[in-house]
Amino acid sequence: MKFSLSRRLMAAAAASALGLSVTACGGGDQASNVEYDDTVTVGILHSLTGTMAISESTLVDTEKMAIDEINAAGGVEVDGKKYKIEYIVEDGASDWPTFAEKSKKLIDQDKVPVVFGGWTSASRKAMLPVYESKNAFLYYPIQYEGQECSNNIFYTGATPNQQSEPATFFMYKNSPAAGKPFFLVGS
To answer: What pLDDT sits at residue 26?
Structure first.
């Protein structure tokens, strides 16, 4: 089943994503007694259990807080219509096949057009075909290895050419052993 997404709903979902990134950096004016014209529901999919929960659970808290702040400030406005953002949280359970399964649930059953989720490359790669086949959108919040491009995934983290290469060049030029060969060990 392909998920049909109206332009307005996509705009509202994208606005909520932009609002998440902006609002998470600082509070805005707090509006009270806001009347909304409609709601848009987004998914939050991170590990709340298992080995990755220690890293990913803070993202769930941050995303929920940002959404609450956006709503308190009046929600998002698209074409003069005010949207309240609602969210559904799912647990990826530190298991990449579970991420794909929960993505399908969020898209097919819960009808969310946008999901904020994933942490590992394995979870992202498991989710990728789901979002592409259903024409839904995933915001992936962490650095990744690059050389992957999808119209359905917003890669918000740095790639090696944005992170490792500049750091390596800086160390090479500015260390006490500047200009001498060295080994960079990492994963």
So the answer is: 45
* Helical residues (DSSP H) of 24-154, grouped into ranges: 53-72, 96-108, 121-134
Strand duo 153-155 + 137-140: pairing: parallel
The one-letter amino acid at 22: V
Please tell me whether residue 114 adopts helix, strand or coil conformation.
Answer: strand
pTM, to two decimals: 0.73
Q: Are 174 and 97 in a shared domain?
A: no
CB atoms within 10 A of CB 94: 21
Domain contains 2? no
| Shared-domain flag, residues 148 and 164 | no
Q: What is the chain's length?
A: 187
Tell me the β-bridge partners of 39.
Answer: 84
Same domain, 185 and 122: no
Q: Is the dihedral of CA 116, 117, 121, 122 positive or negative?
A: negative
Q: 57-61, 67-71, 149-153: which has the minimum mean pLDDT?
A: 149-153
> Are residues 61 and 136 part of one domain?
yes
Q: Please tell me the least confidently modeled range out of 16-30, 97-111, 129-143.
A: 16-30
Cβ–Cβ contacts within 10 Å for residue 14, how many? 17
Domain interval for residue 184:
160-187
